[in-house]
Design brief:
- About 25% of the residues lie in helices and about 15% in strands.
- It has about 525 residues and is an alpha/beta fold.
- It has a domain of about 350 residues: Alkaline Phosphatase, subunit A, CATH 3.40.720.10.
- The strands form four sheets. An eight-stranded mixed sheet has the order 5-4-6-2-7-8-3-10, with helices on one face.
- A hairpin with a 5-residue loop joins strand 13 and strand 14.
- Helix 6 packs parallel to helix 9.
- The two termini are about 25 Å apart.
- GO terms for molecular function: hydrolase activity; metal ion binding.
C-alpha cells in the first residue's frame, strides 16, 4: 500500500455520516486512469480516489448480476448465500446492508435496481414478484426504480420530446440498422442517458434531505447494449487500449477447456448489440475492437455523471459528511478470450473497481494492493456505523485501510465462484451429463498462481507471473503437480473456514450461552 497523505479529519467521527453507495454495472477494474489505463480517462473517479482510498486488487464474489450483488449486499460468499444464477432467490434469513442500515436509524433509499429475487416461501404462487429476478433487496425504500427494461427512463425521454422512445430500439444509433456495430450516436444526448436520468433523480431527492441519509445509486451502464451518445461514442478508436488477452483464435480458446467449448458457442450477440442475432462467433477481432471502444466511451459517460453528483453534494453542503463507496457488481470480458459479458473463471469478469472516501478519515490518496472482495463492503459499513450483522459474514471490514493503516493478517488471495447450472431448462446438465450441484467452479488467485476447481470438470492452473493473460493451463503438467495440490488445499481450507459461522461461535453451557467471536 502506498503511504496516504495525512490531513486533519474534516468532520467529527461521532457525527453520523451520510452513506452513498454507487455501483456501475459491468465496469472493469483495470478501466481507471488512476491506475494507469492506456487510454481510458476517469477524472471523477480519480478525484474521489485522491480524497479516499483506491483498492487496486478488488474482486467480485460471483457472476452474473444477482449472485454478484448478493455477495456485495450480504457480505457472504456464494457458498453461503446460495444465489447461484439470475433468478435464484435470496434466502430471507440473511441480513444485508439495507436492513442493517435501518437498525442504525437510516431509511436506505434505492435509485436503480438490486436484481434480488425474493424468497418464494411464504409468498403466494401467483404473486407477480415471483416472475422476475429484478426484485428489490429487503430493507430498501425504492425512490426511482430502473430495471433492465428501462421503461421509467423511456417515459422520461418521451416527456423531453423523444416521441420515438417507446422501446429499447432507442439504443440503435441513428442511421444504423438493428444489430450493427456502430459508433454513430443514438437519438438521445449525453444529458439524456440512463445514467443522467438516474443521477438527476438522486440529485433532486438530495435537495429535500434534512437528516443523515443512506442512498444506493445503482447505474446500469456500462452494461450493454453497447451504445453511447456524442461525444463519448467516438472518444476512443478501435485498437486503442491494452492488447486483448486471448488465444490466437476462437477455436484455440474453445479447445482449451470443456467449459469454454460449451459456453462460448452459446453466447448470443443480441445481449451486447441491440437487435443483433446469431452467435458471438460471427464477430471477428476487428468487431471486438470496435465494441471495446464503445465500452470505453460508456465508462467515460458514467464518469461524467459521477462528477455531476460530486458537485451536487458540494452544492448541498453534504460533501464533507458523506461516505462514498464506488464499485461495480462484476466486470466485462470486453473481447478478452474472444468473448463478451461475464461469467466463467477469467479475471476479466471479476476484477472490479473500488474507491472508498470517508471524510472522517485523516488519510487520503491511499492505494491498497492487498486482495479485497465485494464481500468486504457490508462489514465495512457495519464497522463505520457501529452496528453488527445478524449472521456470520465472510468479508472483513476495510476501515483499517480507509483510515490509512494496513489490514492485520490480511488475505493473500482473491476468491470467487461461478455456478453454471440451468434449473429452468436443464441444458447445461444434459450437455455435460452432470447434476445441477456439479455445475460450478471456484477460484483462488494470488499474485503468482491462479487455480480453478470445477466440481466435475478438469481443473485449471495458471502461472500468472509468466502468463498474465491466462493462456497456458499447466494443471496437467507433472512439473507443477505439487503447486496444483498446494492450491487445491488452500481452496479447500478457505471453504472450510468460511462455512456458515452464524451459530458456530456460540456454545450452550451450564451457565447459559457463551459466544466468542474472533477479534
Amino acid at each position: 500500500m502506498q503511504n496516504p497523505t495525512s490531513i486533519e479529519p474534516r468532520i467529527e467521527k461521532t457525527r453520523r455520516p451520510n452513506i452513498l453507495l454507487i455501483t456501475a454495472d459491468q465496469w472493469r477494474g483495470d478501466c481507471l486512469s488512476a491506475i494507469g489505463h492506456a487510454c481510458v480517462k476517469t477524472p471523477n473517479v480519480d478525484a474521489l480516489a485522491r480524497q479516499g482510498t483506491l483498492f487496486r486488487r478488488h474482486y467480485a464474489g460471483a457472476a452474473p448480476c444477482s449472485p454478484a450483488r448478493a455477495t456485495l449486499y450480504t457480505g457472504l460468499y456464494q457458498m453461503n448465500h446460495r444465489v447461484c444464477r439470475n433468478g435464484s432467490p435470496l434466502d430471507a434469513r440473511f441480513d444485508n446492508l439495507a436492513l442493517a442500515a435501518r437498525r442504525a436509524g437510516y431509511d436506505p433509499t434505492l435509485f436503480g435496481y438490486t436484481d434480488t429475487a425474493p424468497d418464494p416461501r411464504g409468498m403466494d404462487a401467483n404473486d407477480p414478484h415471483l416472475t422476475s429476478y429484478e426484485g428489490v433487496l429487503p430493507g430498501f425504500t425504492s425512490r426511482q426504480l430502473l430495471p433492465e427494461h428501462e421503461k421509467q427512463w423511456l417515459s422520461w425521454l418521451r416527456s423531453r420530446g423523444h416521441a420515438d422512445a417507446v422501446s429499447r430500439d432507442i439504443h440503435i444509433p441513428v442511421g444504423a440498422e438493428a444489430g450493427d456495430i456502430s459508433d454513430a450516436a443514438p437519438a438521445y444526448s449525453s444529458d439524456e442517458t440512463q445514467t443522467a436520468f438516474l443521477a438527476g433523480e438522486f440529485i433532486r431527492w438530495l435537495g429535500d434531505q434534512d437528516r443523515p441519509w443512506f442512498a444506493h445509486v445503482s447505474f446500469l451502464r456500462p452494461h450493454p447494449p453497447f451504445s453511447v451518445p456524442d461525444p463519448f461514442n467516438r472518444m476512443f478508436k478501435p485498437g486503442e487500449g491494452p492488447a486483448f488477452a486471448r488465444a490466437a483464435n476462437r477455436e484455440a480458446e474453445e479447445a482449451s477447456h470443456p467449459y469454454l467449448a460449451y459456453a462460448m458457442p452459446r453466447t448470443g450477440k443480441g445481449a451486447f448489440i441491440h437487435g443483433a442475432t446469431g452467435p458471438l462467433s460471427d464477430w471477428n477481432g476487428e468487431d471486438f475492437a470496435a465494441i471495446r471502444a464503445i465500452y470505453y466511451g460508456m465508462i467515460a459517460e458514467v464518469d461524467a455523471q459521477l462528477g455531476r453528483i460530486w458537485q451536487a453534494l458540494k452544492d448541498a453542503g453534504a460533501w464533507d459528511n458523506t461516505l462514498i463507496v464506488f464499485t461495480s457488481d462484476h466486470a466485462e470480458m470486453a473481447g478478452d478470450h474472444w468473448t463478451l459479458g461475464k461469467g466463467g473463471f477469467f479475471d476479466g469478469s471479476y476484477h472490479i473497481p473500488l474507491v472508498i472516501r470517508d471524510p472522517a478519515s485523516g488519510a487520503t490518496g491511499g492505494i491498497v494492493d492487498g486482495f479485497t472482495s465485494a464481500a468486504d463492503i457490508f462489514p465495512t459499513l457495519c464497522e463505520r456505523l457501529g452496528i453488527e450483522a445478524k449472521n456470520g459474514l465472510d468479508g472483513r471490514s476495510l476501515m483499517p485501510f480507509v483510515n490509512g493503516g494496513s489490514g492485520q493478517d490480511w488475505r493473500d488471495a482473491a476468491f470467487w465462484e461461478f455456478d453454471f447450472r440451468d434449473i429452468a431448462g436443464g441444458e447445461t446438465e444434459r450437455y455435460f451429463g452432470l447434476k445441477s450441484n456439479e455445475c460450478n467452479l471456484a477460484v483462488i488467485r494470488d499474485a503468482q498462481f491462479k487455480y480453478v476447481h470445477f466440481a466435475a470438470l478438469p481443473p485449471l492452473l495458471f502461472n500468472l507471473s509468466d502468463d498474465p493473460m491466462e493462456l497456458d493451463n499447466i494443471a496437467g503438467d507433472p512439473a507443477h503437480a505439487a503447486i496444483r495440490l498446494e492450491y487445491a488445499e488452500k481452496l479447500l481450507s478457505l471453504r472450510a473456514r468460511h462455512l456458515d459461522q452464524t451459530l458456530a461461535y456460540t456454545e450452550l453451557t451450564e451457565k447459559g450461552p457463551v459466544t466468542r467471536r474472533p477479534s
